[in-house]
Design a protein that fits this description.
Helix content: under 10%
Radius of gyration: 11 Å
CATH architecture: Single Sheet
Strand content: over 45%
Number of domains: 1
Order of helices and strands: EEEE
Length: 49
């Protein structure tokens, strides 16, 4: 069985900088404050599907 990857997209510029493994137990979309190399600052990154 293959591991599914989920991308985290920057809320400011929309670039998908990070990937995480999918968690079936999580019901809401993940929002994490991470560094965006395109914006040059820390922004909210939201889980995309």
């Amino acid at each position: 069985m293959a591991v599914r990857k989920i991308a985290l997209a920057c809320s400011v510029c929309g670039s998908r900088n990070y990937t995480i493994t999918e968690n079936k137990n999580r019901t809401t979309r993940l929002e994490v404050n991470k560094f965006c190399k395109h914006c040059g600052k820390y922004t909210i990154h939201k889980e995309t599907r």
